[in-house]
Model the fold of this input.
Amino acid sequence: MIDKHSRKINYLRVSVTDLCNLRCVYCMPAGGSELSERDEILSFEEILKIIKHGVSLGLNKIRLTGGEPLVRRDITSFIKQISDIEGINDIALTTNGINLKEHADALKKSGLSRLNISLDTMRADRFSDITRGGNIQDVFDGVEEVLKVGFTGTKMNTVIMRGQNDDEILDFVRYISERDIELRFIELMASGWKNMVDADRFIPSAEIMEKIQEIGELVPVKERVGGGPATIYRMKGSLGSIGFISAVSKPFCSTCNRLRLTSDGKLRSCLLSGGEVDIKNILRSSSLSEEELADKLTETFIKVTTMKPIVHSGENKAVMNQIGG
Ligand code: SAM
Ligand code: SF4
Done:
């Protein structure tokens, strides 16, 4: 699939659930978000049907996210079913790490290619504040288990917020200097939930980079696993690498190769703007023959691809746990 700005679309990010076992301050209201009715959430069979159709149109890369994907029952057998689809050559998963230790081995055996683990602080009390109650040790244990069972290309997603965790930038750099992990600093984005993100907390990547360069030179890395929007650097003597995702200060829309599937069945052209089509309604339409359904799915993929904006407007703030961050 090629969009109207000549971008080749081969990547689908799938939010498998809007449920989460944390309540991060920048992502959800304290009382949790408004959840979809359970029968509004796509079944694994429905997601597989959409992925298989996407593969016939050129998809070869999948990321599972949420909400928290590891709270969805049978997630590892679902990943195995995706990895069995001919044409899929990369399956990644983004997790908060809370249930990772118990799942790491099964995830490795399921055919999952890579993991992104989100962690915004190295301190137990702050972790509990930022996530509203999470236990940081669960994440640390999850990280070690993932490395132990043999995952490579593991990434750590870190959102730095002024006055909240900006004094920990170098602690993160030291943490990955002893581990084969790509640390990715992600710029704070406005949230779709009302009054969730205080704009004063935003820190641009350039400022974080400057801080890191106080302790060593950052050398750009050319080759990297999995591709993606981050600019990657390495510091001499460090086992890990450091990336910056500057979606706010320097949007990377010109190289965007992805569509998104929301947990309630919308095929979406962009996290922040552009349009979406309710693909679940099409799948659940009993009046369509197999052939008509296939035509409708193709039509939907093409339509959503053409909706991709050349640059996101940033006007629509994302409701992360539903769309999938
Ligand atoms: N629950 C999983 C997790 O936390 O990794 C997957 C879903 S979460 C929505 C995916 C990513 O979105 C996380 O790395 C999280 O830090 C990021 N995220 C959520 N809200 C954000 C915001 N307002 N600005 C920047 N990143 C955000
Ligand atoms: Fe849950 Fe991830 Fe959102 Fe945190 S960022 S509340 S872990 S979905």
Summary: Residues 11-323 form a domain with the TIM Barrel fold (CATH 3.20.20.70).
